[in-house]
Task: structure prediction
Amino acid sequence: AQELAALANANVGHLLLGVDSERARVTGVDPAQWQDIVRRLDAILNDAIRPPLYFSTLDQGTVIDADGIERRVIAIEVPKSVFVHDVKGVAYVRVGTSKRTLDSEARARLSMQRSQSKLMRFDEMPLPKCAISDLNPQSVAKLLSNARVTTLGALKLLSMLGDALVPNVAAALLLSDAPHQWLRGAYIQAAIFRGTRNDPAQQVEANRFEGPLDQQIAQAWQFCKRYTRTLMHKNPARLDTPEYDELALFEAIANAVVHRDYSMPGTPVMLTMFDDRLEIMSPGALINTMTLESMRSIPMARNDLLVAILSRYFKTTLFGDERSIIEARNIGVPQILQRSLALSGREPIYELIESLAVKLTIFPARMPNADLETGDAQ
Result:
């Protein structure tokens, strides 16, 4: 029951019956016990686990053991659940090769991520120690003007706390000069390294970008652009090509900031540039039943209010014509993949780091017989 609940509280997983993992050998299951095993599993899933758990598939097959003998094995696929499951009041989660107990904070965070019936998402939660006076007046006035409304309440950026209206998480992230005062980790930590390893001796520069999210995104993008080298070659005229597609890089940073899990305290977005790749680490697991494959084509926002406000009312002119900070059409991931692939010939890689973060790796363009020039030199 604990193993099944732990798998459901993580991502997709499998439970194999008839395999002794401690001794690394196949023991098999007696085919005559098939119906009894199914009944016992049904009892575990419905009686021992709360809320009851349902698995995607249950199948059986044969595996040849080390002695060449066919052994019957039962395989159960456990899907990523939209609920948090526990056994006798204790919640577990599978992380790598081990099962861990969720403490109260981690359980609350997972429950908030998983629940599809909750009335309020995290970015709509009130911030008890944040007052309306803590928001930047000029930023507030600009947003109200762009949205053509007179109050932040009309944009759902104020939430009730007792009998009072206070800024919520989205308001602090968008309109305060220091959102990390209330949301530790609400900033971008960036670093540039020579070589291909995270070696302090090879660090060229490090910076921390704080402030409203639109400023964080723009400043982190400009930081990367400054260290992005330009490939120069003649064909027959001189042709300059940046290592990284500028729009794809902007979308990647914006996505990492906007779709991260702000309920994880003290964990910033990590942006690291090496000679052979650029890595962006966004805190938080994939939401609900989303997978690395489905995120390529199915839009699903963790922070709905944040996305709605940024896509409608926050603009940038970094690319010449005015455009939204983030795309309301949810085409960010396809743009990152397609534009980066077209430039470098290698598709970026998305990885899930256990259930803690999503990591994006983008590879630079490389051309034969091309000279390299850094942004600083230009």
About this structure: The mean pLDDT is 86. Residues 122 and 289 are 18 Å apart (CA to CA). The chain has nine helices and 22 strands. The longest strand covers residues 70-78.
